[in-house]
Design a protein that fits this description.
The complex is a heterodimer.
Chain A: H1 3-31, E1 35-36, H2 49-59, H3 65-68, H4 72-91, H5 93-103, H6 112-135, H7 137-142, H8 145-166, H9 172-189, H10 197-215
Helix pairs in contact in A: 1-9, 2-10, 4-5, 4-6, 6-8, 8-9
Chain B: H1 15-21, H2 26-39, H3 47-56, E1 60-66, H4 72-78, H5 83-86, H6 89-92, E2 93-98, H7 106-119, E3 125-129, E4 132-133, E5 142-143, E6 146-147, H8 148-156, E7 161-165, H9 167-171, H10 173-176, E8 184-185, H11 187-190, E9 196-199, H12 206-219, H13 232-235, H14 239-242, H15 246-251, H16 261-264, H17 283-286, H18 328-355, E10 360-361
Parallel strand pairs in B: 1-2, 1-3, 3-7, 7-9
Antiparallel strand pairs in B: 4-8, 5-6
Chain lengths: 219, 368
């Protein structure tokens, strides 16, 4: 079995199994957790929990004015690599074929050169995010190994993907294998590390919205 | 085509002398050397040395062993489009044993092999066509009462080098495909003491075979090989890198099926399973039938036939970026496992809260 066969075969199958089982486990486990009893009456005119939850998710898509000025670069950078990662993952033709193979769904792709350009911007943005993390005393203090592993496993598929697309360093099939294996590593780590925020951010923001809504506090 | 088995070389004569006697001029030999040198991307300055090397060499004794195979490789090498050039390989070699082409049969055929081995000890080249079955002592394919495995070991022990022609001999090919009932393997699995040059393909391109043999005869050494033992001159680049449809790949324009608008416009065949990006061969440059076409030009994706285990890649029409197997059932099982784990975790949390006397509530925070 060649490295590429291993990557496209057992590695991808096992990592997808872990990813799907792990994500559903964490989401279902969280959704079925009991709500806490609030012993005080909700403030008069408080919005319904569902509206408050939605507000909680949406309002925090942009920082409070207090933090908007000081952290805007960091915030925008976060959007750049999140959006870049999403575009590269979802709109590159070979990726769409992979998704189609798993889900049966497909959609039009972007030209390779556009994807390449966005991939470079995404990689650069991820490096900037790491620089912020290691140079900011506060961020450094609250960072755990989990954060660095999550960063590394996000950066790796982007870097190996760019290398494969540009045929840099190794033979194409080796680069493609490393790209798929790095994606497998990301899938395996995903449910257990902070990458799970991709799903859980909505839950935590919604709960915060509900709690704040009950108290009639502005979010 | 020349009939080398019926017309053995005069002993002591060089190739140049023999060819001249047969009416092949020095100019023709020079053109042939230039042709092969060009195919192998050799500098023009080496053409003279290539031709001189060929002219001064003795005809190379070649023993061609056919094992688990379909004879497609022999067909490819012996049915060239332009006989003037490609068939010259048979003027350069003395094909002393080839079960399909030789006129001798039975014991006489085997005697020819043994005689060639004895007469050219340490100097003959063994060409292997087909995989070698090794399971149960190799009993699944025998010739003259001898297993392929024994015949290979016996023939190779005094050889100069081994050339594995075709994917079956190079990597196991179709006989080695799952479930491989005969325990078939490539020549390199069983030959460790001699250099093994792989000329894979199903079938291989005739020029790759001719160029490699001519190079060895002329320069007395092996051509530069890649990590799979293939001559880099013919297997140095992927089909994809040299494919005329590559610009469509870069633009994201693909054929979605074999008869859609994209296919008619000649768009890239990646989506319909083309393995060109990971297949090293010269099909896109040398092409077939005298440079007329090659599979991708004819509208079908590359099968990756010059790569190991090309038969077990999950299907010829499965895109390269898709997983090898269908994942519906495993992922459905993963979903069920995830729901069970999540429900179990929540149930444990509720029990934990209950044991601490904490109440559970509705999303509004009220008692249910």
């Amino acid at each position: 079995m060649t490295l590429l066969d291993f990557a496209r075969g057992p590695a991808l199958e096992a990592s997808l199994f872990i990813f799907v089982a792990g994500v559903i486990w964490r989401c279902v486990g969280t959704l079925l957790l009991p709500w806490r009893l609030v012993r005080v009456e909700p403030r008069k005119g408080a919005s319904s929990p569902w509206v408050a939850a939605l507000k909680g998710v949406l309002v925090k898509l942009w920082p409070y004015d207090t933090f908007a000025k000081s952290g805007v670069v960091q915030f925008v950078n976060g959007y750049i690599f999140h959006a870049g990662f999403a575009v590269v993952f979802l709109l590159f033709a070979p990726h769409i074929l992979f998704i189609k193979g798993v889900t049966g769904l497909s959609w039009p792709s972007l030209p390779n050169n556009v994807i390449m350009m966005i991939g470079v911007v995404t990689a650069a943005s991820l490096v900037v995010a790491l620089v912020f993390r290691v140079t900011s005393p506060v961020l450094r203090l609250i960072s755990r190994v989990d954060d660095y592993i999550s960063w590394f496993l996000t950066f790796l598929p982007v870097a190996t993907g760019l290398m494969a697309a540009a045929h840099l360093g190794l033979r194409y099939e080796t680069l493609l294998s490393l790209h798929i294996l790095s994606f497998c590593a990301l899938l395996v780590w995903f449910p257990f590390g902070k990458l799970m925020h991709a799903f859980l951010f909505a839950f935590s923001r919604a709960v915060t919205g509900v709690r704040m809504g009950q108290r009639g506090a502005a979010i | 085509m020349a009939t080398p088995l019926l017309n053995p070389p005069a002993p002591g004569r060089t190739l140049g002398e023999s060819l001249q006697q047969r009416g092949v001029s020095r100019r023709a030999l020079l053109k042939y050397a230039a042709y092969l040198g060009g195919l192998m991307a050799m500098p023009a300055s080496t053409t003279q040395a290539f031709a001189e090397g060929l002219a001064s060499a003795r005809r190379q004794s070649v023993i061609w062993l056919s094992f688990q195979e379909c004879t497609g490789c022999t067909e490819s090498v012996t049915r060239p489009f332009s006989p003037t050039f490609e068939s010259m390989i048979f003027d350069l070699i003395s094909l002393d044993y080839h079960e399909t082409l030789q006129t001798a049969s039975g014991e006489a055929a085997e005697e020819a092999r043994l005689k060639a081995m004895a007469d050219n000890k340490g100097k003959y080249i063994v060409v292997v066509e087909g995989a070698i079955p090794a399971k149960d002592g190799g009993i699944y394919s025998t010739i003259a009462g001898q297993t392929n495995l024994d015949m290979l070991r016996d023939t190779v022990k005094d050889a100069l080098a081994v050339v594995a022609v075709g994917t079956c001999a190079s990597f196991g090919g179709i006989p080695k495909a799952n479930p491989n009932p005969t325990g078939a393997g490539p020549a390199s699995d069983f030959v460790t003491a001699k250099p093994v040059i792989a000329i894979p393909g199903c079938p291989p391109i005739a020029e790759a075979m001719a160029g490699t043999i001519a190079y060895m005869i002329s320069f007395g050494k092996l051509p530069e090989l890649d990590q799979r033992g293939r001559p880099k001159a013919f297997y140095g680049e992927t089909i994809h890198d040299r494919c005329y449809r590559r610009p469509f790949y870069e633009r994201g324009q693909f054929a979605d099926s074999f008869d859609d608008e994209g296919a008619r416009r000649g768009y890239c065949l990646y989506k319909v399973g083309c393995k060109g990006p990971v297949t090293y061969n010269s099909c896109a440059t040398l092409k077939w039938n005298g440079g007329v076409s090659f599979p991708i030009q004819s509208g079908h994706g590359c099968l990756g036939c010059s790569e190991p285990d090309f038969w077990d890649q999950g299907g010829f029409y499965r895109p390269l970026s898709a997983s090898l197997h269908n994942l519906g059932l495993p992922l459905a099982a993963a979903g069920v496992a995830g729901v069970a784990l999540g429900a179990g975790a929540a149930w444990t949390a509720r029990r934990h809260l209950a044991s601490r006397g904490q109440d559970v509530a509705t999303p509004e925070g009220k008692k249910p």
